[in-house]
């Protein structure tokens, strides 16, 4: 753990002041090193009181996407093995892909305060204003076949849905294949990218964008589908680092379960959370309806299953889904 993250953890574990002696003993560093870390935290926006003979006390923390702030809240085994925080980038997915090609470890996370070229499904643009949302990409190196890689999108969706519930008490729904909704409005999108050989996955990039604190005026006028944020729905701002840590912890648990038990448990939870569960839906391609029927779940590859009026099951690999 970074020294600054370790100091933040001590602040949060103690009620009131933390003595320099305790910090020195716990972290095995000198008083001079502690003072340097305290000053670095202050420059980053943390308000830390220092009182002779009493020590230090954290009074307030900024809403920063910093590796220290996230690491102090992590209890994950894989996710967050390395955390890269960028002020601005074209796309966190692109950055993570390049790092993965250079050999970055599984669990490496790339975050950005803003993106100039955020990507959504089917080449669409993901609006990425600064200072309000979570733009996150995670490198995984699962021992699976390439045709199984789409299953990881469903892990991401469940992790985001769980995290929203934990921090807001809002119960979101999941729309096939890669959106998370609140009251029918999009609050999060997922975009996975893969590098693979014929019979093996080199790595998968889990791209996750969550609208945390966007206001109504920050959404583009040309959105194809209604969108919202957790702030708009709950009335309360969300700490970005805290949400990120919760999401990485949830994803870490889901990934461990996936590696042990396969896709089945995640698939079951995803289906329960799906906005089409028990309902009729229409699937269109380019504006023309191609399938209409009852939601029948997803198969082992993540394809959408639709039961027609005659009982025949259609397998949908791509398209826009509308719940009727």
UniProtKB/TrEMBL annotation:
Q: Which domain of life is it from?
A: Bacteria
Q: Which InterPro entries match?
A: aa-tRNA-synth_II/BPL/LPL, ArsR-like_HTH, Bifunct_BirA, Biotin_CoA_COase_ligase, BPL_C, BPL_LPL_catalytic, HTH_11, Transcriptional_repressor_C
Q: Which residues bind biotin?
A: 91-93, 115, 186
An example of a GO molecular function for this protein is: DNA binding
The answer to keyword Methyltransferase applying to this record is no
* Sorted UniProt keywords: ATP-binding, Biotin, DNA-binding, Ligase, Nucleotide-binding, Repressor, Transcription, Transcription regulation
Q: Does the keyword Nucleotide-binding apply?
A: yes
Give the coiled coil ranges.
none
Q: What is its EC number?
A: 6.3.4.15
**Which reactions is this enzyme annotated as catalysing?**
biotin + L-lysyl-[protein] + ATP = N(6)-biotinyl-L-lysyl-[protein] + AMP + diphosphate + H(+)
Q: State a GO cellular component annotated for this protein.
A: cytoplasm
SUPFAM superfamilies (UniProt xref): C-terminal domain of transcriptional repressors, Class II aaRS and biotin synthetases, Winged helix' DNA-binding domain
HAMAP family, A to Z = Bifunct_BirA (MF_00978)
Q: What is this protein called?
A: Bifunctional ligase/repressor BirA
What is the originating organism of this protein? Answer: Pelobacter propionicus (strain DSM 2379 / NBRC 103807 / OttBd1)
